[in-house]
Amino acid sequence: DGIECKMNPYDLFAIETALQLREQKGGHVTALSLGQLQAKAVLEEAMAMGADEAFLLSDHRFAGADVLATSYTLSQGIRQLSPFDLIICGKQTTDGDTAQVGPELAEFLDLPHAANVSAINRVAHDHLILSVNLENTIRKQRIELPSLITVEKDLNTPRLPSYRRMLLM
To answer: Which helix (H) or strand (E) covers residue 15, if one does?
Structure first.
């Protein structure tokens, strides 16, 4: 309580990736977060960056949720927002550093997924061609849509939130 919420840095790269894909191919960008009411500020930042809409899953019963509970809760929120083509998550959080929420979320949604995406090389109507960072090598991977990816920090440079958009909130 009373602590300012800040967007997870990896999520900035995820939002920027979604915005760039929308600019290239069209579509709709929805931001979704799980947290206390102060997390609304994070979603406002996503909207100021250019997201079309944002939703906060908030309930005192979610407090202290582990990775499994967080992934499950987010999956249920996403089910309510479907259909979708692609879910983009930051690689990991800076507090837990587990890098497990994205892959577990994909499992709950029964989606193909790729972690540690360092580049999106091709976007087709039914698949993506990705570069995946495996620490000692970069692997090219084809993934069918709909799917989930988690993105690395060097994938892009996140844009600054628009002052004009912030005034409209």
So the answer is: helix 9-25
